[in-house]
Amino acid sequence: MKMNLAKLNKMKQQNEKIVCLTAYDAGMSSLVNQAGVDIILVGDSLAMVVQGHKTTLPVTIEHMLYHTQMVQRTNTNAWCIADMPFMADADLATALKSAAVLMKDGLADMVKLEGGGGVFKTITALTDLGVPVCAHLGLLPQQVAKHGYKITGRDELSAKKLLNEAQQIEQAGANMLVLECVPSALAKRITATLTIPVIGIGSGVDTDGQVLVVTDVLGLTEKAPKFAKNYLNPTAGSIQKALTNYVAEVRESKFPAKQHLID
Ligand code: KIV
Q: Which residue range forms the structural domain that includes residue 12?
């Protein structure tokens, strides 16, 4: 049965962990569906893990469309989020156009935007038009040129700012939030404060769900981040089993464990 927003909201209310993985093509989309993920993210991380770029900045809306279309051809059950790439939401008109491409031509179920204050208006405009929106706070790879890979929320001031932005994002109409590399106590607090599902990456075990980049899960990334886990170990023995083990560990709150924290 196809996942939808109502079910994802219910999972949050019932404390059932939400499982998300990235996928970038039809083959992997099929495999992660078989493993039972709730959400597929067609992340702009594909710039790095598929296209070989050093950052996510070079990926275009045309590339995102191409990969979203491939994923959606074999996606039977999962809710599909497509990333708005760098500058695809530079102004409101561009953001609406980009979202239309991903939703109408790519058949995405939701679009994801990175950032805090700069995206509130865009979130409201999109959601008013019926486009489900996932926001993305914490470490923002699209701002690497300005800030580097900056971890926020470690001191009281930036923790307050992050909590405030998360609340404003919900008020602006966002339907979901990804928290990347946010200290686990703060991620827990944000998750408890918001009514929308909060999906964490490198943000501890207490968010409503987890997302990882699929190439990290399958040990294909040369230098995987500390918060990731390679499930394709000798005991797993197959890609399918590795993906199933990831899903099971998230459902049982066994992943992330202490060694994956960035606190
Ligand atoms: O692009 C991506 O894969 C992402 C995840 C790291 C959350 O945004």
A: 5-260
d(CA 104, CA 122): 18
Beta strands in the chain (DSSP E): 18-22, 39-42, 79-83, 110-114, 133-138, 176-180, 198-201, 209-212
Does 44 sit in the ligand 1 pocket, CB within 6 Å?
yes
Q: Which residues are catalytic?
A: 180
Count of the separate structural domains present in the chain: 1
How many whole angstroms from 47 Cα to the centroid of ligand 1?
11
pLDDT digits (tens, 9 = 90+) for 90-113: 999 999 999 999 999 999 999 999
Minimum-distance ligand 1 atom for the alpha carbon of 45: 1
**DSSP per residue, 71-90:** HHHH-SSSEEEEEPPTTTTS
Share of the chain above pLDDT 70, in %: 100
Q: How far is CA 98 from CA 46, 82, 104, in A?
A: 17, 11, 10
Calculate the CA 65 to chain-centre distance. Answer: 17
CA of 235 to the centre of ligand 1 (A): 27
Q: Is the CB of 83 under 6 A from ligand 1?
A: yes
Ligand 1 pocket, residue 228 CB under 6 Å: no
- pTM for the model stands at 0.98
